[in-house]
Design a protein that fits this description.
53% helix, three-stranded antiparallel sheet, 281 residues, alpha+beta, PaaX_C
């Protein structure tokens, strides 16, 4: 199964293969799910990645069944595999339109059991739950905000993992306060570090956002790495109600920063990318 999670290592600066996935997710899907080799090489050069690194990264993505080689009208290019298209489609809402949970949403609890003879399924299930933002109550017992039930059920069914799990909806009635409990279910320390790194790296871009937005190529060169860095985070952050988050939670400031940069840079960056892809620039 295609696993884009392996393409998104946590806490590191964006790698060429991550940037390539972002380019295909943003622009190739809207252009018939295809990018010519020449367009890919040029766009990657504009964000500081040279041809040899592009070729090496594409080879890795092909081995992982994320990209496939396809010629169209005699022109060499690449397209996303059906499995990769599905994973990216699942991520669109989480990255761009994620809903923060409310207190009255309750909780979704998942219990799983996978036979020892199917270890690959166990790995796939854990990877899927992590990417969905689940926390861990105990081995084999995972938890997420209650409003995610339909999303979780759909993902597990599409990936052939539903038969290994049981889902329960309810409220937390533990002895300790829920706010204390959630700090043991999720690693807020690591998330705090990742959000701080994002804010430190892209605060300057917000200060210069008007100048960047006025130049389509500069907007593109700033936007694609920024989005690549950001798209890891919604898969690690469960989107808990604000009242359950640690005091002075920096994830909210990071969300505001991303939202402002996305609103300012997405359109001019897209115009530049489409011009290159269509041979108009």
């Amino acid at each position: 199964m295609t696993d884009l999670g392996e393409v998104l290592p946590e806490g590191q600066e964006a790698q060429p293969r991550e940037l390539i996935v972002t380019l295909f997710g943003l622009y190739a899907r809207a252009e018939g799910n295809w990018l010519a080799v020449s367009a890919l090489v040029r766009l990657m050069a504009e964000i500081g990645v040279e041809g040899p690194a592009v070729r090496s990264s594409v080879s890795r993505l092909k081995r992982r069944n994320i990209l496939t080689s396809v010629r169209r009208n005699g022109v060499a290019g690449y397209e996303l595999s059906p499995a990769a298209m599905q994973v990216l489609a699942e991520g669109d809402t989480r990255i761009f339109h994620r809903r923060r949970a409310a207190s009255d949403d309750g909780w979704l609890m998942l219990v799983f059991s996978v036979p020892e003879s199917e270890r690959d399924k166990r790995h796939a299930l854990r990877s899927s739950l992590t990417r969905l933002g689940f926390g861990t109550v105990s081995p084999g017992v995972w938890i997420a905000p209650g409003h995610m039930t339909d999303e979780v059920r759909g993902v597990l069914e599409r990936r052939g993992l539903a038969e290994y799990v049981e889902l329960f909806e309810g409220v937390h009635v533990g002895v300790r306060p829920t706010r204390e409990a959630v700090e043991t279910w999720w690693d807020f320390g690591e998330l705090t570090h990742l959000y701080a790194a994002f804010v430190d790296r892209y605060r300057a871009a917000l200060d210069a956002v008007d100048a960047l937005a006025a130049d389509r190529q500069k907007a593109f060169a700033a936007y694609v790495p920024m989005l690549t860095e950001w798209r890891r985070l919604p898969y690690l952050d469960p989107g808990l109600p604000v009242e359950l988050l640690p005091a002075q939670w920096n994830g909210l400031a990071a969300e505001r920063l991303f939202t402002k940069l996305n609103r300012a840079l997405a359109q001019p960056a897209g115009r530049h990318a489409r011009g290159v892809i269509r041979g108009e620039e």
